Batch of 4 targets.
Target 1
Amino acid sequence: KNQVEQSPQSLIILEGKNCTLQCNYTVSPFSNLRWYKQDTGRGPVSLTIMTFSENTKSNGRYTATLDADTKQSSLHITASQLSDSASYICVVRFSGGYNKLIFGAGTRLAVHP
Amino acid sequence: GAGVSQTPSNKVTEKGKYVELRCDPISGHTALYWYRQSLGQGPEFLIYFQGTGAADDSGLPNDRFFAVRPEGSVSTLKIQRTERGDSAVYLCASSPQGTRDTQYFGPGTRLTVL
């Protein structure tokens, strides 16, 4: 079954600290993996997208890594800010027969002052 | 507008009623997607349009759900005989050409079925 599992489910960190969010997937065949940020009451906004041949992709203080062999990805946030408080959703594109995005449940991050 | 817009932002209805949710994609985007997001969950795919046609409607949960995009731009998601379990945020997204592109999401419509 094509699934995307994220951990932790929720996380609280202090402003200025770093954190890493995990994503494991069983989607196959796999085309690309994306991380989205979703603020409360808003639609998701794309942060990064990586194909199976890419190991890392950065977007400002956000760095995503991908290990296509172990089917794992991580999103590292550096020097967190209060505005980083949001849900971070890992999305894997399934490319077998039809093109569909499979979403994880997200990690809810709260950054406290 | 610059982004995807959805109306209404909130909709409260009674069980058994019919509702329509509207999505205005980014101008020029040929691909349009509908998702449903329950509290604490990631979005769940419902249907994907390429132009005027539904390229993939495998996510629609049952025949009470129907979506149209008659002119290849605005789309309407229609839910008949609403049930309390239909309560969720309905997200619309668009992308320039297809599923390989980044999807740009609207703010969603929060549907509450009493």
Target 2
Amino acid sequence: EAGVAQSPRYKIIEKRQSVAFWCNPISGHATLYWYQQILGQGPKLLIQFQNNGVVDDSQLPKDRFSAERLKGVDSTLKIQPAKLEDSAVYLCASSLVVGGDGEQYFGPGTRLTVT
Amino acid sequence: AQSVAQPEDQVNVAEGNPLTVKCTYSVSGNPYLFWYVQYPNRGLQFLLKYITGDNLVKGSYGFEAEFNKSQTSFHLKKPSALVSDSALYFCAVRDPNSGYALNFGKGTSLLVTP
């Protein structure tokens, strides 16, 4: 079974520029998560989708971050404009169902450096 | 809010010795607890979980964890450490108030020396 795919793996941009990340979850997984992992910290949830609907985006900085999951499969996360503090690894994860004891499967992440 | 704490930034152990990585939790209701491992430049990998049942949970790569309700702990253990176990370990709790997303601890770096 193919895992969660993410691209690009690395991105370097200047502050105030925009950037987009792409995620392709495991086939058949209805739930998709975007996490932000700042160096030295654990991942923090940004947004969660169930199919193509948003379940939780309470920690997403909506003035600069946006995400969508068209057709309930692939997802993109965008930052516009980027700030220095956005430098982090952005992890995408998917799970078969919402809640219960379902495991989340993580992609390799996109390492963003904002200069 | 559901949360976990990992009190140690780093754990050092000699190869062949037993290892313990500590995690305590704070939840309302029944906890769903997880351990993940992160190798350099790779995503998080699931190790094991506690949902209900036996307090001793066995997982991947010979790891196990003991759920202790009275001490609100979920420590990760392995009887005999390998150098290849060196990685970053995260404890997490599922938060039913946040779409069942995972709330992670800050991580513990495990270094196993030959």
Target 3
Amino acid sequence: GQQLNQSPQSMFIQEGEDVSMNCTSSSIFNTWLWYKQDPGEGPVLLIALYKAGELTSNGRLTAQFGITRKDSFLNISASIPSDVGIYFCAGRQKKSSGDKLTFGTGTRLAVRP
Amino acid sequence: GAVVSQHPSWVICKSGTSVKIECRSLDFQATTMFWYRQFPKQSLMLMATSNEGSKATYEQGVEKDKFLINHASLTLSTLTVTSAHPEDSSFYICSARFSLQETQYFGPGTRLLVL
């Protein structure tokens, strides 16, 4: 099935550093979502974006919905050890067969204390 | 946020047996539930979408006779892996959505190991 391209695939950073990851697609999406998945758990929603150009923050997290509706980025400021996990972007399209999410390939984040 | 539970959290079975996984929305009514499969170090791949009271819609390449989905109530959907084989070993995750809202809430996942 279709997947969104996320980059980088993985990051290994020092605690306190800022993190930036992005997601790109050849298709247009109506909604962009960012999830975090801990090992052995389901994804947890971090931020939802509904309009092109929208910039939304949730604590230390900031995400933007690209103007072209084909991309989005997520920034994490002042990283802490509990930020470790896999971050997935997801795009939502409205289709006649029903709405569904398409997930990105994931960015694996490791934080060194 | 809304709570979605899955049971069991993990299961080990012999090849050829069937396994049923339950997905429940605990504090809301979910007219639509989704089933995903995730292989190690890979992303979530949608298997099927189920609406309460109607047949599930399967994604291309997913065998509907092998992965039976039942969404009999607004709070429960089940996925049955029939005649499971080792290649069916994976992490199965469900999600649920309100009928008029866009946010999907995910369950904690069920890890299936077929020996």
Target 4
Amino acid sequence: DAKTTQPPSMDCAEGRAANLPCNHSTISGNEYVYWYRQIHSQGPQYIIHGLKNNETNEMASLIITEDRKSSTLILPHATLRDTAVYYCIVRAMDSSYKLIFGSGTRLLVRP
Amino acid sequence: NAGVMQNPRHLVRRRGQEARLRCSPMKGHSHVYWYRQLPEEGLKFMVYLQKENIIDESGMPKERFSAEFPKEGPSILRIQQVVRGDSAAYFCASAPGNTIYFGEGSWLTVV
């Protein structure tokens, strides 16, 4: 079962920041927070991941709270092409390394 | 999606036939994962393989499904005696370590 909780849907205006929350209150010390997105009929796309420090790349920023029980993915300037389902995933670094997907957040970017 | 190649992209099979889906991981990646996505549902983990070894098959149906990742060549997901409920998108992913990259998927339709 997924170890994260996300709102089922959100929307934001094009050009504005999209802030997608995720709760992972049972996260363990060796578990990372990963974000993927899936645009309709495409494969999941890796966005970003982090352990405890905030992370930023060309796609997004990841803010992890100090207690690591929640995080926020920030798309700084959302475009229509960012409309997708966004998955927050906690991934244990055990021998399997698999990703367990939950229901995600369906983000709609409005013109 | 960074070079994970899946084929065929679309496959139609009659009930009772066999389906073979192929996945070529990114160059240098020795870990392969298979996921299934039923219509209007989330991604479900099926199996994790390394070269010539099945590491975790906890998500594989007990019958008719098998997977391999030979020393040479692509990973193969094989579905024998397909039924209509097997109609889904099948995604392959590969990883060198911390980050998993997905292919664009193979869409199986059973008629």
